[in-house]
Amino acid sequence: MQRLVLLSVLLCASCHISLSLTNGTASNGTVADGLLENGNFENAPNATNMKGTVVVGRYSIPGWVNEGFVEYIKSGQKQGDMLLVVPEGAYAVRLGNEASIKQKIKVIKGMYYSITFSAARTCAQEERLNVTVAPDSGVLPIQTVYSSSGWDNYAWAFKAIYEVAELIIHNPGVEEDPACGPLIDAVAIKALYPPRPTNKNSVKNGGFEEGPYVFPNTPWGVLIPPNIEDDHSPLPAWIVESLKAVKYIDSAHYFVPQGRRAVELVAGKESAIAQIVRTIVGKMYRLSFAVGDANNSCVGSLVVEAFAGKDTLKVPYESKGKGGFKRAELKFKAVSNRTRIMFLSTFYTMRSDDFSSLCGPVLDDVKLLSIQTSPNP
Ligand SMILES: *[C@@H]1O[C@H](CO)[C@@H](O)[C@H](O)[C@H]1NC(C)=O
Ligand SMILES: *[C@@H]1O[C@H](CO)[C@@H](O)[C@H](O)[C@H]1NC(C)=O
Ligand SMILES: *[C@@H]1O[C@H](CO)[C@@H](O)[C@H](O)[C@H]1NC(C)=O
Ligand SMILES: *[C@@H]1O[C@H](CO)[C@@H](O)[C@H](O)[C@H]1NC(C)=O
Ligand SMILES: *[C@@H]1O[C@H](CO)[C@@H](O)[C@H](O)[C@H]1NC(C)=O
Ligand SMILES: *[C@@H]1O[C@H](CO)[C@@H](O)[C@H](O)[C@H]1NC(C)=O
Question: What mean pLDDT comes out for the span 128-151?
């Protein structure tokens, strides 16, 4: 019996590793976590398939199929007075009016995957991108720029219902200048392992350790778009219940209170994160969490508001912008068998180093436990 358990643990450990050992493809042919094939567009079209910057032919960019007005952009290229800079390597693509890029990905049927890509808006207004893996699709607004570089990383998740998933990134915009569309660089994938509640925590993924792929060399975190544009959350178990995104941050580039990942509530009351948890009516619960700052020059009096059903708690945090956190807890009596746990940032804050990027308090290590009611003496 014990041997059986050990064997299945070993099997499972090895299957997980085989999925992530190699970039590109796992040992059994399904996609591995990381960049997609030519995901950073460093592999260029042949010169004969280019007319200036415009890509000619649908199969000209290795690994991709392109449609419509697609440009292949070299870092440092100028457009008007704008210098185009590329985060991953030296090349990116630009999607003009109604243009798209596609790639077929071998996936494991039934699994959830998250796509992370870098995008930058150029000259159009209200830029958006429609990301599709049939039958799911989501329109991600890329109008608000959260990083001072102009590039942001976006996450979007899907459930694989076939063995081959076709990812389509499409610019639905129609501008007077067909070249005025978003730049795309660095497209990656990550398999998601939906976490379960444990007897130590009824909140799932409370430390935000399970989430989208984070590029090792782009220090801007990953934006998790609002749920209205996303059926499956790239941050398993959590819903982004707001008009604006929340930012997923990693300990390699930010201060993170616990573990390797956390979220930064970057858009004031417009960026809230929630989860619905099972509770027992009449029982007392303790919701505990960490509030801090990401060591990203987000200076000021930050406030996180926590909600558990109808109970709320405001947690002030004085940030010097150099990293740090405190713990807080909200005790409440469950009035329903399902309780909505939600967090938002009361204020809008700008980074003190560039005065242009939105920032906010960091949330991490969210735990919910029922409190043992002390026995009567
Ligand atoms: C590939 O390996 C994973 C993990 O071992 C497994 O779940 C999946 O079914 C395999 N896919 C194929 C096509 O064999
Ligand atoms: C893995 O990535 C490296 C560096 O980006 C590249 O040289 C190599 O060809 C990739 N391997 C596969 C199997 O894609
Ligand atoms: C580029 O040209 C080479 C040599 O003609 C050819 O083998 C290759 O398939 C071409 N690549 C693309 C993406 O068309
Ligand atoms: C996004 O693209 C998909 C697939 O092409 C399409 O079905 C969907 O209607 C598009 N959504 C919007 C809002 O354009
Ligand atoms: C904040 O970042 C600075 C510069 O990268 C680093 O030296 C410092 O140790 C970080 N502080 C914390 C608390 O992580
Ligand atoms: C939860 O409460 C609702 C309404 O009060 C009820 O319909 C439902 O059966 C309950 N679910 C469980 C699992 O107790």
Answer: 88
